């Protein structure tokens, strides 16, 4: 993502433009579903230095501003992505953690009508499909979560 493009996105969400924020947003756009460790390495490669805590704080601000979405597949670290607000789902590999977007089958979110809603007002459904990615199907001994 171009720096200019990232700056436009930040301003549009009312987030003050700083070099670390531009770097985090750019890195996150290039590396969707990234955990904080990987993202910090990518940002340090661009900026020279930035602490992991600073990256956490920036990601928190992005999530609150609607610039990023946080997902946390069971048994793994939180991952972040810039694709927000479309109620898309994820395929996650049990072995290597590879995470892939899955679009809803139709335009409107299809999973918002549970068989019982216990009088909750439901506005989001998060579906995680667990399995093995093509690479890991060839290496079953690497299964991590069993
Ligand atoms: Zn895999
Ligand atoms: Zn996603």
Walk me through this protein's architecture:
By secondary structure, this protein is of the alpha+beta class. It has two domains: 3-71, Orthogonal Bundle (Arc Repressor Mutant, subunit A), CATH 1.10.10; 86-144, Ferric-uptake regulator, C-terminal dimerisarion domain (Dna Ligase, domain 1). Helix content is 36%, strand content 14%. It has a three-stranded antiparallel β-sheet with strand order 1-3-2. β2 and β3 form a beta hairpin. The longest helix has 14 residues, at 52-65. The termini are far apart. The mean pLDDT is 86.
Number of folding domains?
2
Give the strand tally: 6
Computed Rg: 17 Å
Terminal residue distance: 38 Å
- Determine the fraction of residues in helical runs and give it as a percent range: 25-40%
